[in-house]
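Weekly structure sync, notes
Attendees: PL (lead), two postdocs, one rotation student
Agenda item 3: pending single-chain targets
PL asked that the sequence for the first pending target be pasted directly into the notes so everyone works from the same version. It is reproduced below exactly as submitted, 200 residues in total.
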Amino acid sequence: MPDFSYEKKAIESGYRYICGVDEAGRGPLAGPVCAAAVILPVDIQIEGLNDSKKLSEKKREQLYDVIIDRAVSYSVAFGTLEEIEEYNILNATYLAMNRAIEGLRIKPDFALIDGNRVPKDIKIPCETIVKGDFKSASIAAASILAKVTRDRLLVQYDEKYPEYNFKKHKGYGTKEHYEAIKKYGVCDVHRLSFLKNVIK
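Predicted structure, written out during the meeting:
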């Protein structure tokens, strides 16, 4: 379960405000990529806090409200569909992460980043943590905010494009989603660069 070991290590090194950063939506066939940055009070107890992928949708929604209520500061940002197409998904993810960090009301002086790559153009010292959303409480909190925010957006897409059933698969490449694309074609929120082999 995630804890504050990495945050405490950074504080012992002289940093004061440590944010956890994670993204949601690098893999789907539709919609933007979303990133969140969260500064939590160290040693705060949030029951059930974990990697967003290991939680039910209902539990993520519950924790979303708790995290927002108890965070020192939080921020959510997107890498747009246009940026994914123009710069590729990795660089669009970096843009989203940097926007989330810069959007924090209280400016962090250190970031814990999920994964093994340092976001390009990040302006503060940072540490990458593989499977960080399972190890760091701050990253786990960020993973939940990013996932819930993006899922809510895909539910909105579903209202506009009900034939794709975005509310169910959230844009991921399920059998149902591919079949809908083959039947109806692509819509305005699909990532064409992800669908080159489908829409020949």
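Discussion points:
- Residues 137-160 form the longest helix (24 residues).
- Residues 5-194 form a domain with the Nucleotidyltransferase; domain 5 fold (CATH 3.30.420.10).
Action: rotation student to compare against the earlier draft before next sync.
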